[in-house]
What does this fold into?
Amino acid sequence: MSTAILVAHVHPADPSSEDAFNRWYDDVHIPQVVERVPGVVSASRFLLADVQLLPEDALPARRYLSIYQLDTEDLAGTAQALGSALGDGTLDMSEAIATTGDTGPELLFYVPTEN
It folds into this structure.
């Protein structure tokens, strides 16, 4: 199997939904993605720290980061399965996550370097 990661930059829909966003992400979303999307084996979540080298006005709009560990020989197939699952009801979505604009999800796949 080949290893890759999926990096997801996400954000709550609004400040009042942050607690609901975190509960949904930890208790529903991550378990469903790991269970229902072939090739996804685990995930970790992070919150942008208050201490940064960049000035505040240069910080990203999305404050949450999730790193999904992938174990698949078919990264394109895993990406397609995730894309389908996000739109076809396989994964329970929440109104607590921002889905559009500057704070909508940014999903990026990475593979190991050849060094």
